[in-house]
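Field guide to reading this record: the first block holds the primary sequence, the second block holds the structure written as discrete tokens, and the final block holds curator observations. Each block starts with its own label. This record concerns Sulfatase N-terminal domain-containing protein, catalogued under organism Sinanodonta woodiana.

BLOCK 1 — SEQUENCE
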Amino acid sequence: MMRFLFPALLGILFAGLSSARPPHIVLIVADDLGWNDVGWRNPQMYTPNLDKLATNGVILNSSYVQPVCSPTRNCLMTGYYPYHTGLQHDVIHPSIPGFLPANFTTLPQKLKELGYVTHMVGKWHLGFCNWKYTPTFRGFDTFTGYYNGAEDYYTHVRGDGYDFRFNTDVYHPADGEYSPNIIAQRAITILDEVDPRNESLFLYLPFQSVHAPLEVPEKYERIYSNIHNKDRRIYCGMVSALDEAVGNITAVLRKRGFMDNLLLVFTSDNGGPTYSGANNLPLRGAKTTLWEGGTKGASFVYSDTLLKKTKYLNTEIIHAVDWFPTLLRVAGAAPDAGIDGMDMWSTISENTTSPRTEFVYNIDEIKKNAAIRVGDYKLIEGSAGAFNGWYPLPTVEGSLQAGWTGNNTDHAIDTSDEYRLYNIKDDPTEHFDIADKYPDVVEKMKQRLAEYKKSLVPANYPPPDPKSDPKYYNGTWSPGWC
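BLOCK 2 — STRUCTURE
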């Protein structure tokens, strides 16, 4: 294992990094954060902590994620596209026995081989029907948080069941405590227990924020009193609450000495749900769609010491699968051959040309749609989704739907054999379908998509299982039914 390598070899592996000790890594995931819902893009947003980190680090302007939650988390944990793990369709709903297959080695498992201590606080959403699919069986030393998504921020209830754990035990935080505060408090406790000089830390913080339900303490909502649309006002308040939680965590990271040798990665897991308070301007579409507004993530990296170039906007293509090999590179190791991800460390830290020239947005054989990017071109096969317009910020008097270019299926493609082509470099907002103008490009892209489809693993999306019912587990969502 890597922890037994001789010091000289470790020095080679860490060439280009500032310390021979593997750096601390903090990976923060914001849930349902829109492209236009951060202060460094939208002055309406109050996110001073995130803005300071982003503008003093590297803002990633072409960082792609999946259209919904579970598939992106799959990418982060494995370095594989969802269509290679069976998680390409929808998300893992509470009663569906879906999961990240156990034969895939996760990022924390790899990092533990390098001697890291690994902790997770927040939302898992990669399966829990069997204990072996849960975080402490997938490489994390400790886990505090949720198995599912969309829990109430105060009661931690999803549907008919309670969903909050400390490791494998059901855990009840203080009554009425807001979810981002719980996550921040637990993260700070971990930081107080880890010795930054003698241990290397991997801290995975997939926040529940800012996913529905729209809930926030009033003091954050008051920041946006000039916004008369209630959903938008609450949503923005949730973003600011998330920002404060990140600020509290980073303050302790600095106080405890972690920042001397640390890389912090921040990313959303999908585009913002414009139908639930978010905004993706100027991008087209929303969460759940294959448009840029559903698949471009608000993302940045920050480090005091590890980045060779900082305070710039990186426009090179990066995909969520790339974080797996990139973070392993930062830790001093190489991933196994054959994964979908690519090492982007020099691209991010030095602004060199990205080795990635193409990627798969998704291939979903159930929805019968797909999208790929090759060079500047993007091909969409079938329907891009159900929210397909360019949705402006709601007017102070109007609703979230004010200004939409049509109803919820505006611009949807109804037939599965239809293709659309866009030049994302020239047309990043996807206003101009050029498929008819460049049929030769469409044909080449179709052939490339067909090659990708040859390695597709059928979606693991079975019907709901009644054995999952929380009534069998004292009212909690619990493993043990698959």
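BLOCK 3 — OBSERVATIONS
Residues 21-354+461-473 form a domain with the Alkaline Phosphatase, subunit A fold (CATH 3.40.720.10).
The chain has two domains: 21-354+461-473, 362-453.
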